[in-house]
Each structure stands twice: as C-alpha cells, then as structure tokens.
Amino acid sequence: MKLLFDQNISHKLVALLADTYPGSQHVRVLGLHAAPDEVIWTWAKEHDCTIVSKDSDFHQRSFVRGCPPKVVCLRLGNCSTARIAACLREHHPQLQAFHADEEAAFLVLGRR
C-alpha cells in the first residue's frame, strides 16, 4: 500500500516509513504542495495511493465521491513527525485491512 502525504504532514515521513509503506510520496516532493484538493485527489487515484491528511476536506470529499482513492485522516493534534510515524506503524495491520476492503473509503486514526 502506497500513501500520499498531504501538505499538512511532514515530507520526512516518506523516508521514515519506506520500509512499511514503500512507494509512498509527499505532495511537496511531487510539486503539488499548492495544488487544489481536486488535483491531489486525481493524482492519488491515478497512482493507486491512499491520501493521508489532517485536513477534513478530503474526509468530506470521500463521502461525496467514495473511493478510489481512499483517505486516512489523522486526528493526533499537534504532534511530532515521530509520533505520526509511530501511529502509522502501529496501525499498519488496520491500514492493510482498510486498503483491502473495497467498500471502505475513509479511516480515522487517533482521537475521534
């Protein structure tokens, strides 16, 4: 499973999680850091990536559009990149099940 990290999450996660989520990308590295959500959504869909964001806009879009792409919303508050990496590692089995579920479009990790 490949992740596409939104601009509100550190680009360092791509390298930190390369062993667990190989092929993942960050919008900044792709030159999409200032792109509208629609462009990011389309890129993720075309490249079979799950969007990871702290932004509720992708959550709302997933309700309207469904998937692909799938969306993971991080509800961790203001925290370190290391905390986000630990969360994504800890929830790797849950993320794999989410990825395999053809009907699931949205997953929240962290506080609800």
Polypeptide structure, described:
With 112 residues, the protein is an alpha/beta fold. It has one domain (2-110). It contains 5 helices and 5 strands; from the N terminus they run βαβαβαβααβ. The protein has a 5-stranded parallel β-sheet with strand order 2-1-3-4-5, sandwiched between helices. The radius of gyration is 13 Å and the shape is globular. The mean pLDDT is 91.
Give the N-to-C terminal Cα separation.
24 Å
| Rg over alpha carbons | 13 Å
Which sequence of strands runs across the widest sheet?
A: 2-1-3-4-5
Backbone shape: globular
Number of helices: 5
Overall average pLDDT: 91
Order of helices and strands: EHEHEHEHHE
Overall tally of domains: 1
Main sheet overview = 5 strands, parallel
Percent helix, as a range, is 25-40%
SSE class: alpha/beta
Task: Pick out its properties.
112 residues; alpha/beta; five-stranded parallel sheet; 5 strands
Reconstruct the topology from this structure.
Layout: E1 2-5, H1 13-16, E2 25-26, H2 37-46, E3 49-53, H3 56-65, E4 71-75, H4 81-90, H5 92-100, E5 106-110
Parallel strand pairs: 1-2, 1-3, 3-4, 4-5
Summarize the structure.
By secondary structure, the chain is an alpha/beta fold. Helices cover 38% and strands 19% of the residues. The two termini are 24 Å apart.
